[in-house]
């Protein structure tokens, strides 16, 4: 009887031991829960179809999104179409054929990219619109900053600096839904002052492809048509603000005509320190890329997500997450852009 008991004890001990050994064979920092692995056991693969790398911010988006995805143990496939709609569609198609699990897209043309959403859905792949909305397609999720708020912040600052006078509006690319949201935000704030006759919008043009050279040409024309009688300029982003300030400089007006921009580009921050640009709107790209990466994993795993708002894109009410932008001028440069290390003091002359 005693011998039988001993035998049983021995057997159960060896079974227990075997179980312990099995656990220790899993990789140390297993980032994958069982259901995160696609059926083929490969890590989830995210496609990131970008419009352009022309502006400084998109280089940051690419770098930070890549890090955000890879830090979750996933794969990412990135392509940039540099403003070419046909190329963007071909690049997205290639990613779909290569078996991505989810597509994240920065559309060049809000309308043209609807075709990509249809192709992705046809392959059972969900699509997230990154920073810019895709129009007229049943997009699964849109994540951006509150672009109307960006325009409002620009106009509020300019009205503070120039409550009366002649205003020039240098718009963004008409193919970019953000350019329309920005403009709406600007004019919602300026309207009362326009109606009171305090300010006149003496020039208002879109800028194809956000091209600084075009912004320069628009600003030069505005100065010429109005005999340099311009009191304030609102440009849809820092790249176009840079073009406008060059044109002002040619007339010896840089620094005496307040200019608003967006994106907190290094050159714009330098201009704010030098006094030739009055403000920019800071959008912490690290928050956007992190948020999209986290939501991409949730969606790719088939989980429900908590949108903060829904936005109508002409086809459906798109579940959306909008992040907060911040107005920045010389007064809060340190507590925002530098505090976040978006740029470092060393990169900016005259900040020591
Ligand atoms: C917008 C974006 C801006 C700006 C612009 C030019 O969609 O929100 O940050 O940089 O594109 O690429």
Question: How would you describe this protein?
Answer:
The chain has 352 residues and is an alpha/beta fold. The chain has two domains: 45-139 and 285-323, Rossmann fold; 147-283 and 328-338, Response regulator (Rossmann fold, 3-Layer(aba) Sandwich). It is built from eleven helices and 13 strands. The strands form three sheets. The chain has a seven-stranded mixed sheet with strand order 2-1-3-4-5-12-11, sandwiched between helices. A four-stranded parallel sheet has the order 7-6-8-9, with helices on both faces. Strands 10-13 form a two-stranded antiparallel ribbon. Helix 8 links the parallel strand 8 and strand 9 (259-260). The radius of gyration is 26 Å and the shape is elongated. The relative contact order is 0.12. Residues 22-37 have low confidence and may be disordered. The structure holds beta-D-galactopyranose. Beta-D-galactopyranose (GAL) binds next to loops.
């Amino acid at each position: 009887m005693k011998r039988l008991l001993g035998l049983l004890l021995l057997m159960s001990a060896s079974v227990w031991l075997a179980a312990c050994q099995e656990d220790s064979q899993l990789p140390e920092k297993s980032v994958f829960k069982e259901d995160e692995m696609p059926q083929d056991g490969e890590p989830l693969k995210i496609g990131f179809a970008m419009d352009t790398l022309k502006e400084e911010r998109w280089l940051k988006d690419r770098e930070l999104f890549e890090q955000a995805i890879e830090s979750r143990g996933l794969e990412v496939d990135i392509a940039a179409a540099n403003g070419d709609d046909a190329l963007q569609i071909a690049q997205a198609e290639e990613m779909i054929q290569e078996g991505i699990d989810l597509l994240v897209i920065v559309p060049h043309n809000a309308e043209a990219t609807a075709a990509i959403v249809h192709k992705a859905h046809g392959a059972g792949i969900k699509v997230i619109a990154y920073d810019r909305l895709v129009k007229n397609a049943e997009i699964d999720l849109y994540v951006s900053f509150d672009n109307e708020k960006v325009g409002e912040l620009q106009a509020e600052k300019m009205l503070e600096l120039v409550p009366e006078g002649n205003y020039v509006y240098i718009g963004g690319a008409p193919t970019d839904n953000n350019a329309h949201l920005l403009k709406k935000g600007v004019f919602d704030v300026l309207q009362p002052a326009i109606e009171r006759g305090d300010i006149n919008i003496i020039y208002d043009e879109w800028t194809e492809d956000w091209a600084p050279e075009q912004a320069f040409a628009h600003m030069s024309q505005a100065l010429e048509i109005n005999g340099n009688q311009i009191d304030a300029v609102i440009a849809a982003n820092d790249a176009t603000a840079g073009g406008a300030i060059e044109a002002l400089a040619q007339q010896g007006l840089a620094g005496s005509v307040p200019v608003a921009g967006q994106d907190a580009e290094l050159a714009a921050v330098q201009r704010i320190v030098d006094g030739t640009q009055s403000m920019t709107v800071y959008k912490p790209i690290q928050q956007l890329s992190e948020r999209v990466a986290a939501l991409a994993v949730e969606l790719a795993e088939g989980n429900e997500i908590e949108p903060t708002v829904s936005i109508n894109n002409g086809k459906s009410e798109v579940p959306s997450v909008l992040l907060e932008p911040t107005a920045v001028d010389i007064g809060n440069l340190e507590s925002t852009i530098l505090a976040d290390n978006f740029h470092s003091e060393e990169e900016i002359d005259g900040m020591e």
